[in-house]
Specification:
Low-confidence stretches: 19-27
Number of strands: 17
Structural class: alpha/beta
Radius of gyration: 21 Å
Helix content: 25-40%
Shape: globular
CATH topology of the largest domain: TIM Barrel
Distance between the termini: 27 Å
Number of helices: 17
CATH architecture of the largest domain: Alpha-Beta Barrel
Bound molecules: 2H-imidazol-4-ylacetic acid, zinc ion
CATH superfamily of the largest domain: Metal-dependent hydrolases
Largest sheet: 9 strands, mixed
CATH class of the largest domain: Alpha Beta
Length: about 425
Amino acid sequence: MHVDLLIRHGQLATMEPSGGGEAGAASEATPAPSRGRAMRDIGWVEDGAVAVKDGRIAWVGQSDAANREGIEASVEMDAGGRLVTPGLVDPHTHLVHAGSREYELALKLAGVPYLEILRRGGGILSTVKATRAASEEALTQQALVSLRRMLEGGVTTVEAKSGYGLNAEVELRQLRVAKALAELQPVEVVSTFLGPHAVPPEAKADPDAFLSEMMALLHPIHTDGLAEFADIFCEDGVFSIEQSRRFLMAAKQAGFGVKIHADEMEPLGGAELAAELGAVSADHLLAASRTGLQAMAEAGCIAVLLPGTSWNLGAKTHADARYLIDEAGAAVALATDYNPGSCPTESLQLIMALAANVLRMTPEEILTAVTRNAAFAVGRGERIGSIAVGKQADLCVWNARNPAYLVYHFGVNHVDTVVKRGTVVVQDGRRVG
Ligand code: IZC
Ligand code: ZN
């Protein structure tokens, strides 16, 4: 067999628990995220090899088997015993925005809560002001800087929410920018419409009318292919459970997969609502009830945890990852929540370290949460998130020999090489090509 690229002598985390690592095996990728304790099975292959042809994975197995089968490659790479994983997936970000909010740091340190800053017209609303004033070109340039950091950090697919326009014109502008980013750089961008992210000042008198205005955008956005998912900030003082149900039901009817910012600060019942609606994911969940988490797990709704946010906001409690995994048997994913307020970082590797130290997740669970399960959280689980024959060739070679090292040695970039759709796009941790 002649292939485009052959990576040999890697320690492979295929993220295919059911035999995806067998030599030459056709992909029997179970079309489901890994739940509960199964999150610890990372489909490990010692001294493994991966062959890539036409942007897809053509063969996976042990290095000596690759030799025996006479696989020849245009480009060969010796991983030298280093860790090879699927490209990482960041399934919750507010990527496209203008400006920054470092001036809120002093307020935060003085003890002013996040939602109080929002009530005073800052927080999300300050980013709305900056984003409304920004051109498409300016929004694009700012997002490109972030995407490059993400890619150099091993992220090959990212979800991006709107929600800093809060009117038809600027919400659509954000979504158009997100879509165009795919043509300008290698990271795949999955768009989510988050029109109900906050109530803008001009709509304060009638939040329900504002919600209806955002609901009226669902059909045109879907028809124009500007977003695959719809999301709402369901939180005390922002949008209620009733408003969230109304918006998300309309979104489902319009053809969107639905997501929800659920139970981040107050236990409103966002997790229960996610289960009721068959949401693809419910995100945050710090304050969620155990019955809500259990209901989500039973409904197959993925828990997207954002420990960078709870850590950065100085929260006293964090999402109960151990309950979700050990008791509820849920599928957990992890994301940065990259945004200019509650979590200004593009580093999914930092989030992985926090997942260990704050959420008490194991390195194997963490790797599952940023690859296989994150891919399902953005509706791409059948194409990306694991190393299996037929899947898209999104790969990372790390300056590490095992997943524990990535999580233990925190605050630096461990990426050596990133491959996106079969092409080397990062070398020595730097963008190439
Ligand atoms: O800009 O503060 N939580 N939305 C809900 C955010 C954080 C983003 C922001
Ligand atoms: Zn968010």
